[in-house]
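Tokens help. Consider this.
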Amino acid sequence: MIEVEEEEGTIVRNRDLMAIASTSMTNILECTEDSDEEQILNSELSLPKVPCSEKALKRDGKNLVTPKLVAALDRCQLSIRDSVYILHAFVEALDIVTVYWDGKLLPGLDVRSSKEERLPIIATFDDREQLLAVPKLESSSGKHRTKTVSNALFDWNLHEKLQIMCCDTTASKTGRFNGACAILEQSLQKELLLFACRHHV
């Protein structure tokens, strides 16, 4: 009998807390906005300076993941995985193109080579997937991967609509200087949101 009353009490308290949290969430965000920005600006992290050209500094576009959004997701105590689910749903609602690529060893088309590395490139938009290309890679370096991905994007005229790139987290793709993601951002002259695939980690 006492346990039932305690469970009902906790259910009522949880319901009350959820009602208070849902009604006052916007007020909390507005009140703590300045303090969050100050904390981010005054943090003791010293990031290394990456050399970039003047063109890269004067990029036009809208940064989707702002410090305010990160602070709001963190304040709600969401895990990284839950935050990615929310961001992915948000981006799908904006009708933005996402490009995926991953190298695969496939049987060669000629008699001489038994296997060759190919790079399937897939674009998703409006709840549809489109295979853009499956070109043969000359090498596995970030430069060659970027060249093949950007060629496919320009062939399909998707380079201006592209906002998100998705790939696994190997060094040839996510390296700071010679990674395919960094080089693709430089070649398109805009920042892209990286959805890192952590399936095999």
Remarks:
- Residues 21-34, 40-48 have pLDDT under 50 and may be disordered.
- Strands lie at 97-101, 104-107, 115-118, 121-125, 128-133, 162-168, 193-197.
